[in-house]
Design brief:
Elements (H helix, E strand, L loop, with lengths): L13 H6 L23 E5 L5 H14 L5 E3 L9 H13 L3 E5 L25 H17 L4 E4 L2 H12 L8 E4 L8 H10 L3 E3 L6 H8 L6 E6 L13 H8 L2 E5 L15 H24 L25
Parallel strand pairs: 1-2, 1-8, 2-3, 3-4, 4-5, 5-6, 6-7, 7-8
C-alpha cells in the first residue's frame, strides 16, 4: 500500500465541506500532544480479547493477510484460565513476531462471591476484594512472567502498586510492563497521573472521553494511553474510526485498540465459546485494517512506532518505601 505523506494530512470530508462553505475551524496547535514513545513514534496498535493460543493464531494469520501491524495482543479472561502449555505457546508465537503479549491478572471482583458489584451501584467493580484476591493476582503475575509473559493487565490500584514494587525487588522481571484495564480507566488528568505514579506503563482510558479530555490529560502526563477505537458493548459500543487521526494528535503516545461492538462477551473463555472467539478475533483485525486505511486516505498514517517496540519510556513514580 502506498501511504500519503503525513505533512499532507487532512480531516474527513474537509475539501468537500470547504467547497460548500462548511469548512471546520482550524486546528489549534496547542491541543497537540508533545509526547512520543521512546525511540520515536506517536501510536502503536493493540488487538484485545485474544483468548488463548487458537485465537492468537487466528489474529496473527489475519494480520498477515490484511497487512495489519501489531505491537501488542492482550487477553481478558486471565492468567488463571490458561494452562502453562497454552501460555508458553502464546509466548513463543508472539516472541517470534516481536509482538508484546499482555495477560490479565485475576481473580477480580465481578467473578467472586461479593454481591456489591451486582447491585445497582456496581460497588467495588473489578477490584480485588480482600487479601486473597490480591494474592491471586500476584500468583498469576509470578507464574505468567516465569513463563515469559512481559506485560500484565491489572484492574486494581493496590494490585498495580504491589506489582510495581515486585518488579523493583526482582520478584518479577524489572522490564515487565503493567497496563491498567479499561474497566477501571481514569476519566480526568489527576486520576490518570495517579495511575502513572502507582506504576502503570500504559493506561486504558474510557472510549467516551472527549478530545479536550485527552488534551487535558496530556498536559499532566506522558504515560502511554490505550483507547478503544471501537469499544465492546459492555464499555459503551462507541465507534470512533473517523476520529483516529485527531485521537493520535491529542493523545500520543497512544495505543489504538481495535475492539468490537455487537459481539458476545467472551470472559471467562472456554471451548464452548470457540466459534465466537475465533470469528471475533479475525474481525478485530479487520477493524484495525479499516482504521489504518482511514489514516492512510487522510495522509495521517505517519508516526507509527517501530514494530517490536514495547517499553514506555521514563515515567514518574511514587517513592517506594524501603
Amino acid at each position: 500500500m502506498t501511504h500519503a505523506s503525513a505533512t499532507a494530512a487532512r480531516r474527513p470530508g474537509e475539501r468537500a465541506l470547504a467547497a460548500l462553505g462548511l469548512g471546520a475551524p482550524a486546528l489549534d496547535p496547542a491541543d497537540a500532544s508533545p509526547h512520543t514513545f521512546p525511540g520515536g513514534g506517536r501510536w502503536r496498535t493493540e488487538i484485545p480479547s485474544c483468548e488463548g493460543p487458537e485465537a492468537l493464531a487466528a489474529v496473527l494469520e489475519e494480520a498477515a493477510r490484511l497487512d495489519v501491524p501489531i505491537h501488542r495482543i492482550s487477553q481478558g479472561s486471565g492468567v488463571w484460565m490458561l494452562t502453562d502449555a497454552e501460555i508458553s505457546e502464546m509466548v513463543d508465537a508472539t516472541r517470534e513476531r516481536a509482538v508484546e503479549l499482555c495477560l490479565f491478572t485475576g481473580p477480580r471482583g465481578t467473578w467472586d462471591i461479593g454481591g456489591s458489584v451486582r447491585s445497582d451501584s456496581r460497588g467495588a467493580g473489578l477490584r480485588a476484594r480482600g487479601h486473597d484476591a490480591v494474592a491471586g493476582c500476584v500468583e498469576d503475575a509470578v507464574r505468567a512472567t516465569e513463563l515469559g509473559v512481559k506485560c500484565l493487565l491489572v484492574a486494581d490500584e493496590g494490585v498495580l502498586w504491589t506489582l510495581h514494587r515486585a518488579r523493583g525487588t526482582g520478584l518479577i522481571p524489572a522490564d515487565t510492563t503493567l497496563k491498567v484495564s479499561a474497566l477501571i480507566g481514569p476519566v480526568n488528568p489527576a486520576s490518570f497521573a495517579v495511575y502513572e505514579h502507582l506504576g502503570a506503563d500504559s493506561v486504558n482510558v474510557p472510549s467516551d472521553l472527549t478530545l479536550d479530555h485527552l488534551t487535558e490529560i496530556r498536559r499532566v502526563s506522558a504515560a502511554p494511553m490505550d483507547m478503544y477505537i471501537e469499544a465492546p458493548d459492555d464499555l459503551g459500543g462507541y465507534v470512533r474510526m473517523y476520529e483516529v487521526a485527531e485521537l493520535i494528535r491529542r493523545g500520543a503516545p497512544l495505543y489504538l485498540k481495535f475492539g468490537l461492538s455487537k459481539a458476545p462477551g467472551l470472559y471467562p473463555y472456554g471451548h464452548h465459546l470457540r466459534e465466537a472467539t475465533l470469528a471475533t478475533a479475525r474481525e478485530r483485525v479487520r477493524r484495525g485494517r479499516l482504521a489504518l486505511d482511514l489514516l492512510a486516505r487522510h495522509g495521517a498514517d505517519g508516526g507509527m512506532a517501530p514494530l517490536g517496540s514495547r517499553l514506555p519510556g521514563g515515567l514518574r513514580r511514587f517513592a517506594v518505601p524501603s
